[in-house]
Specification:
The structure is a homodimer. Chain A is an all-alpha fold. Chain A has helices spanning 6-22, 29-36, 40-46, 50-74, 79-91, 99-106, 111-137, 150-162, 164-167, 173-186. Chain A binds a DNA duplex through helix 3.
DNA sequence: TGTAAATATACGAAAATAATATAAATATAC
DNA sequence: GTATATTTATATTATTTTCGTATATTTACA
């Protein structure tokens, strides 16, 4: 009963792909098994039910995101560089959570999974904010900036990316990110 | 009972989005109605069942693709320009058929829809090949080139786009397309 | 107000799904 | 080659979901 079994891993990565793309409800255990080349019986050897698979999968993704985030924060780099890397990380999709996956929860069904996701997300935010505070104390960010404000910045970014009027103003995504980072880091006041 | 009803259109465009993204089986009529802001009853006023909706939707997409294709073929332009535009059209997704949508059929389920899609696709190919022949007779393409070969070229293109080793060789998608078009139009023999 | 269209709701039958049980097949270790 | 442990194929049951219809209500609108 090796917990690091190949099949076990296959199930999780397949689940991530499919839940991410189509959402939780739309995917059946059987289809996940088929795509992962695992029989249903081996599936139920590792996971007691469908929800538990989603939890494990989500947990893995969040943990991976946390790890990458902390790596960036520990790097010896400026605030602008850090922020840019964090945004890129988010946009690469490794860290960002698929709306398809979240959709099911916010329609009211699957309250157990919804609670789990919310709690886990909150826990992550606490961690990230703490890292921000440390970086702040180390002098990387302005002292009177509230790290909790990062949540709001995240939402701003999402809004900007989804706004076609804004994206149309830039030739490349990179340019848009740099502009955004500069705004967040330096504000709109002229530099001296 | 206006056949050009707004609701009727809403259903089709929503179905296209969702079938395209998640496939036929995974989408329920109810969810399509919900996303299209149409009650189930009005849905069944316009469509007798789920398959008929998929057929209508597919038909619309193919017809739209045909129209755009013929427009390009009728234009006063060189073979290279035409081919490039056709490829771009395909890549924009307006014309290309989502693999998610096709997947259900090739697993054996839904034989009726499978038959319909195959027949409709064949009919389209016949039309397109005919247009190619006309263009050929008009001197736009080499006389001893078999238009039926276009099917094979299509498959080549799909293979190339999905091959990361190849796409990595080009900075932009445009470059890759141009290279491919040049190969198809002029071959690899040196130009005099 | 009166008429046509759209909706919400409920409903039954059929199909799909989650989860379990059992026997056969495969792989691995000795 | 045999024994042991995994994995699979298949069948099964209870529970949901889904399809498609019927009815009663609400909305649009002329």
């Amino acid at each position: 009963m090796a917990r690091e079994s190949k099949k076990h891993k296959d199930i999780i990565t397949t689940a991530r792909e499919l839940f991410w793309k189509h959402g939780f409800k739309r995917m059946s255990v059987e289809e996940i098994c088929r795509k992962a080349n695992v029989s249903k019986m081996t599936y139920y050897k590792y996971f007691p039910n469908k929800i538990e698979l989603a939890k494990t999968m989500f947990n893995n993704v969040v943990e991976e995101g946390e790890k990458q985030f902390r790596m960036i924060m520990k790097e010896d780099s400026t605030a602008a560089e850090k922020l840019e890397k964090i945004i890129l990380l988010k946009m690469e999709g490794t860290n960002s959570i698929s709306p398809e996956f979240l959709q099911d929860f916010y329609t009211g069904s699957e309250p157990e999974l919804k609670a789990f996701v919310e709690e886990r997300t909150k826990k992550t935010w606490d961690l990230l904010i703490n890292d921000f505070k440390e970086a702040q104390e180390a002098g990387i960010f302005r002292k009177d900036f509230k790290p909790e404000f990062m949540v709001i910045i995240q939402n701003m970014l999402i809004g900007i990316i989804e706004d076609e009027n804004i994206t149309a103003m830039f030739d490349t995504r990179q340019e848009l990110i740099m502009e955004f980072v500069n705004l967040i880091i330096y504000g709109i006041a002229p530099r001296e």
